[in-house]
C-alpha cells in the first residue's frame, strides 16, 4: 500500500475544491485568502475575496487605498485588525519590496501580521517552502491520526505537530501537502461525524483503528465569557446623527460607531448615556426611547446593546476618545464601515425614521 503522504496527495488531486485563490495562486491572492480564512469559513470568504481583488487587484492598489475603503470591503468579516494589518503591510511592501511579497521566508516572517500560521501558509503555497501549517483543521486531523490526547487549546501542541510534520512536508510538494492537510480537515475529518470511510488516512489512523474518533481531539471547556450591557445614543441634530471613528489601537479600530458605553451595575440607561456621550464627545443630550436591543458575541465577551433615540441639547461635537467624530445623514452612512452590531442598530433606526417620514 502507498504511504499516507502519497495517499493524501492523490486524494487532494482528485477531491480539492476549486477556489478562486487556487485557480490563480499568485502570492498576493494566497496572502489575502489566508488572512481572510482565519476564523472564517471558505463559503463566507469567497465573495469577500472576489470583491476585494476587484477593488484592489494587487499590492500597490491596496497600498494606495484609503483605510476606510479597505474596512468597508471587510465589513462583516470581523477581526478588523486583519484588514488594518493587510493595508499597513501593503504600504510597507511598496516602500521596501517593490510592491511584491518577498519570496524569502525570513523576510515574510518579519512582516506585520505574519505570525507562524500566515508565514507557513504563504511561504509554502506561494513560494514552496517546506513549512507545515498547523491550523484548527490540521490540529484535529493529526490528533486523531496519531492518537494524541493533549488538550487542543495547549499552545505547545502546535509546535509539537509542526515538528512532527516537518520531515513529511520536506519530502513532498509543500504547497499541495499543506493544502491537502487542511482540505482533509474541512471535507472529511470534520469535527462531528468524520467521514472515515472516505478518508485517505484511514489505514494508519490511530483514532479510527482504536474507535476513538469521538474522543479525539481533547478540548477543554471554554471559560464562560463576560456579558456587558452597553448603551448607545443615536444623537440627532438637524437631520443628522453623530458617529465616532474608533482609535486605531482599539478593538474595531477605524470603524465608525454610535457613541455610548458600558453601564455600571444598577445604573439607569439614560444616566449612562448622558455620562458616556458627554465624556466621549462633549455633547449634552436628551435621551428618548430605545430603537432596539441587539445581542452580539465577540471572541472574549458578549454584549447586549440597547440603542436610544437621543437629541442634541448643547455643545460642539469633539473627538475626545476617538480619532474623529462626524454628523452623518441616513443617506450618507452607506460609505462608512460599521461593526455588525451597529449595522443591526442602523436597520432599526432606518425602519423607525422611514415610518416617521424622516428620510433614509
Ligand atoms: S480516518 Fe477518520 S478520524 Fe482518522 S483522519 Fe480520517 S476522517 Fe479523521
UniProtKB/TrEMBL annotation:
Record InterPro entries: A/G_AdeGlyc_MutY, DNA_glycosylase, Endonuclease3_FeS-loop_motif, HhH-GPD_domain, HhH_base_excis_C, MIG/MutY, MutY_C, NUDIX_hydrolase-like_dom_sf
Residue ranges constituting the Nudix hydrolase domain according to the UniProt record: 226-351
Catalysis performed (reactions): Hydrolyzes free adenine bases from 7,8-dihydro-8-oxoguanine:adenine mismatched double-stranded DNA, leaving an apurinic site
Statement: the UniProt record of this protein carries the keyword Calcium: no
Top enzyme class: hydrolase
One biological process term in Gene Ontology: mismatch repair
Molecular-function GO terms, alphabetical: 4 iron, 4 sulfur cluster binding; 8-oxo-7,8-dihydroguanine DNA N-glycosylase activity; adenine/guanine mispair binding; metal ion binding; oxidized purine DNA binding; purine-specific mismatch base pair DNA N-glycosylase activity
Keyword check for Disulfide bond: no
Keywords carried by this UniProt record: 4Fe-4S, DNA damage, DNA repair, Glycosidase, Hydrolase, Iron, Iron-sulfur, Metal-binding
EC assignment: 3.2.2.31
Matching SMART domains: ENDO3c, FES
Any Pfam family matching the protein: NUDIX_4
Cofactor(s) needed for function: [4Fe-4S] cluster
Family indicated by similarity: Belongs to the Nth/MutY family.
Protein name: Adenine DNA glycosylase
Organism: Geodia barretti
Amino acid at each position: 500500500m502507498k504511504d499516507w503522504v502519497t495517499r493524501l496527495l492523490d486524494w487532494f488531486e482528485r477531491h480539492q475544491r476549486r477556489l478562486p485563490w487556487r485557480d490563480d495562486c499568485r502570492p498576493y491572492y494566497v496572502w489575502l485568502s489566508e488572512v481572510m480564512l482565519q476564523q472564517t469559513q471558505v463559503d463566507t470568504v469567497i465573495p469577500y475575496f472576489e470583491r476585494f481583488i476587484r477593488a484592489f487587484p494587487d499590492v500597490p492598489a491596496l497600498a494606495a487605498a484609503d483605510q476606510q475603503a479597505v474596512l468597508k470591503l471587510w465589513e462583516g468579516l470581523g477581526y478588523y485588525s486583519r484588514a488594518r494589518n493587510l493595508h499597513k503591510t501593503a504600504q510597507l511592501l511598496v516602500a521596501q519590496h517593490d510592491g511584491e511579497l518577498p519570496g524569502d521566508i525570513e523576510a515574510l516572517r518579519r512582516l506585520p501580521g505574519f505570525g507562524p500560521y500566515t508565514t507557513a501558509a504563504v511561504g509554502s503555497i506561494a513560494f514552496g517552502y517546506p513549512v507545515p501549517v498547523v491550523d484548527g483543521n490540521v490540529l484535529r486531523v493529526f490528533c486523531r491520526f496519531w492518537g494524541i490526547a493533549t488538550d487542543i487549546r495547549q499552545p505547545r501542541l502546535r509546535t509539537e505537530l509542526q515538528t512532527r510534520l516537518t520531515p513529511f512536508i520536506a519530502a513532498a510538494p509543500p504547497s499541495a501537502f499543506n493544502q491537502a492537510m487542511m482540505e482533509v480537515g474541512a471535507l472529511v475529518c470534520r469535527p462531528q461525524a468524520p467521514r472515515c470511510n472516505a478518508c485517505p488516512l484511514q489505514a494508519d489512523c490511530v483514532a479510527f483503528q482504536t474507535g476513538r474518533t469521538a474522543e479525539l481531539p481533547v478540548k477543554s471547556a471554554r471559560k464562560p465569557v463576560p456579558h456587558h450591557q452597553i448603551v448607545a445614543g443615536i444623537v440627532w441634530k438637524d437631520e443628522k446623527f453623530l458617529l465616532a471613528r474608533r482609535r486605531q489601537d482599539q478593538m474595531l479600530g477605524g470603524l465608525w460607531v454610535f457613541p455610548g458605553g458600558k453601564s455600571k451595575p444598577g445604573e439607569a440607561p439614560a444616566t449612562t448615556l448622558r455620562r458616556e456621550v458627554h465624556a466621549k464627545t462633549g455633547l449634552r443630550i436628551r435621551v428618548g426611547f430605545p430603537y432596539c436591543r441587539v445581542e452580539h458575541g465577540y471572541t472574549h465577551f458578549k454584549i447586549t446593546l440597547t440603542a436610544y433615540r437621543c437629541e442634541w441639547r448643547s455643545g460642539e461635537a469633539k473627538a475626545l476618545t476617538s480619532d474623529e467624530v462626524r454628523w452623518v445623514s441616513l443617506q450618507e452612512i452607506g460609505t462608512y464601515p460599521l461593526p455588525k452590531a451597529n449595522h443591526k442598530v442602523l436597520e432599526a433606526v432606518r425602519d423607525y425614521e422611514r415610518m416617521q417620514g424622516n428620510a433614509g
